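Hey,

Quick one before I head out. I ran the complex with zinc ion overnight. Inputs first:
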Amino acid sequence: MTEHTNETSQNPSTLPPRLIDQAQADITVITSKLFQEYPQLCFGFSTKKNGVSRIPYGLNLSYMVGDDPNHVDINRERFFGKLGIPIEKLAIPKQFHGDFIKVASNPGVYDLCDALITSQRGVYLCITTADCLPIFLFDPMTYALAGIHAGWRGTKLKIVEKTIKKMTKEFGTLPSDLIAYIGPGAGVCCYEVGEEVAREFDARYLVRYASKKPRLNLKLATKLQLLDAGVSDRNIEISEYCTICNSGLFYSFRREKLNSGRMMGVIGIDSYSKIIKANKQEQG
Ligand SMILES: [Zn+2]
């Protein structure tokens, strides 16, 4: 796998500061055009490139997939360091393909849930994926945020709609104000499913070819959940990246099975001072 050629042969924890800075600068971050219009918002999604973990892990950010935890530490420092986010400010759900949604009032690890919502400054919501969809929501009126993990099970359980309802209940979010980003994940170009999964979904989300397994369009199903919940079409951005066929940029559980690393997406707002600064910019 030639895409791992940037791995350093030195022990990364003993690199001189100049090289640590360079390693951080070399990290690739996937961004969102819609979120970039809000300078108060900090958002990014990782790739597999330029990490310190041994092949096949690269820039793996998960401790749960058999990678060396010391390497994961350094990978996380690089990715979150590039975004200017201190590790101790992360809120990370232990995802399990369900529809539990938790309010993250503080950073930390949240057991058994697949979505976190917050209205707190300095709490950065993380979602860990390799093919499942990472979905992020930002309410520019209340500054409420959400991070959601949805594979076919979470999509079937309508976790996106449920998360928006919980944001309304907890923070007074109006769905029509929300900005939504559906990140890199399994695309309809590649995501074959068995008939037992296909029959759980409406025909409009399936592509069928003779003598092949049906393919599920998870991104479309997620978009329609956002629209059904009241999010405006113009406020929805969908990443064109499919993790299964972009082996140079992303991990794919479907492609790599148990040796697959994981990407992370993160969303947060640092402080009110940044919001005030952003408001001033908007007012010119
Ligand atoms: Zn694909």
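The chain has one domain: 12-186+232-273.

Talk tomorrow,
K.
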